Amino acid sequence: MPSPSPSPEFERLKETVERKLKELREKLASLKEALF
Amino acid sequence: MAYIPESARRLADFVWNRWEEQGVKPKLKYVELLQLARLYLEECEKREIPPESLDFAEIVKAKETYDENKDELLDLLRSIKLTKEEMEEQGAMLALQELEQLLDELESRKEDVINILKAKGYTVSAQKEAEDQLLKLNQEIEKLERRINKLLEEKKYLLQKHEVEKARLEREIRELQERLAKAPKIKLQFLKDYTPDPRLAKIVHYKAGQIIETTDREWAYDLIAKGIAKEVLPEEERERFVRSLMEEAIKELEQL
Question: What is the C-alpha separation between B70 and B37, in angstroms, rounded?
């Protein structure tokens, strides 16, 4: 039976993945700026 | 100006004299050519390239500015041999590019998971599958984070070196600005009409005989070296003053 929206577990995982990706993007950008 | 070794002076003189013989009007000043010659010798030494294996006179172009010549000179020497530091930087850049690419892929996979779940409708099995994929993605992100941290650790000394170099350059600029503010002015008298930049002829133009004061010693000595101007020494000023007084006195006598 389909639910109208994603489960809380899915939302929680999605937020974690997005936050970590954002952090890594910022880390890489600062490393790049410092080195080059 | 930093110390210029005799070998750089000889190299610069050789090229400058050649341009004069050919009637070439260079875009760069003599002092700039001197800096390029110094840079050339220093960079050759750093890269262990015998300077005589290349022709500096052919590398440096009279029709190009100092900055253009400098960029081309460094590009050429880099293409022959990288310094240890440049190799390190190149390695770090490649590693960074690879990590960025991996990050892009993970971001795109995350988007796919969200879109596929949406397309399938939020069924129990689709939610379960999407959650599993996100968990897997999370593990890969952690793996990527470990690689980024490792790179950060490996390049820590390079980062510190850049910081030290940046601080040194900032200090040098500050000191130069302070020295320039305190620098004694040089008085110059133009020996001929002179237009530094033909495009600005109506704005900046010096007449023969005109006297100016400047703190830009490099520019002043360049003009003196080229015979465009001469330095007005204090004795000359006194002489001129005495001569003008005498001339006035003679005129007054003549009118009597």
Answer: 10
ipTM (interface pTM): 0.89
Among candidates B223, B216, B222, which has minimal Cα distance to B12?
A: B222
Whether this prediction's pTM lies above 0.80 is answered by no
Task: Report the residue from B122, B135, B138 with minimal CB separation from A2.
Answer: B122
Residue A26 CA to residue A12 CA, distance in Å, equals 21
Chain B contact for A20, CB < 8 A? yes
Query: For residue B162, which residues of chain A lie inside 8 Å, CB to CB?
Result: 34-35
Q: Which of B85, B84, B87, B36 is nearest to B60 (CA)?
A: B36
User: In B, which residues are within 8 Å of A6 by CB distance?
Assistant: 117, 122, 127, 130
Q: Which amino acid is it at B18?
A: R
Put simply, whether A29 touches B (Cβ < 8 Å) is no
User: Strands, E, within B29-84: which ranges?
Assistant: none
Question: What is the tens place of the pLDDT at every residue in B129-178?
Answer: 999 999 999 999 999 999 998 888 887 877 787 788 888 888 988 888 78
* Contact across the interface for A31 and B106, Cβ inside 8 Å: no
Alpha-carbon Rg of chain A, whole angstroms?
16
